[in-house]
Amino acid sequence: MKFSTIFSGSTLLATLALAAPSDFLGRRHTPNILPRDVAAGPTVYNNIWAGAVIEQPPTGTFTKVSGQFVLPEAFKPSGSQSGTQYAAAFWVGIGADPLLQAGVDSIVTADGKHEYSAWYEWYPEPSGTLSGLDLAAGDKIEVVIETASPSSKGNMTVHNLTKNKKASKTLAAPSGGNHGDMTANWIVEDYTVGNSNVAFADFKKATFTNCVAHTSGGTYTLNKAHPDDIKQNGKILTKTTIDSNSEFTVKYVG
Question: How far apart are alpha carbons 161 and 164 in whole angstroms?
Fold first, then answer.
């Protein structure tokens, strides 16, 4: 999988790669940058990420980031093209480049079937699939990302709390990148295949709860986060609202 990079404030948020079911296998992210819209105030608009981001802490690095969400069902948006598959990804991560992340894709296929795939990745290494989670729309999902050191190893866990099924993966840190450039990320993504964004699904609403980030020196909540939203070809597709220190909502408004 390739990757895309975006700029969030002064921090380079790196890209995002995912595993996928069926005909999305082999997908990668490629550069596709939309600069921040400074007129929008605290919201950072870009072409792939919506959600909440905490910039690198003043001292230390993030060692654990976790959050929960109810898995949305993907729908074809108004004016959708026939014969086209639509998708959105929901994930939690630590870092910029490299980026340690795991989550779930929600997909509506060209013939209207719904598919779900859990995945893990430590960019820039390839992503992989987390199996055995028996995923369905409405399941409550918890994602926990941990790394004692961004230059050593990391662990990614996706837990289907509704079905009480869990899958984890531990990886050695990839070489390259800025291992000191760390952000905490809770994201809804319109990822890319080849050089183009996938057709972005209407996921209605995604609510992330129990969002918390840890460093060796303390705990950070969403009162330190800024919202990100997706804007493509001049059109805003999402609206992120940080509802409390531990919860935020992303609505599809495209």
Answer: 5
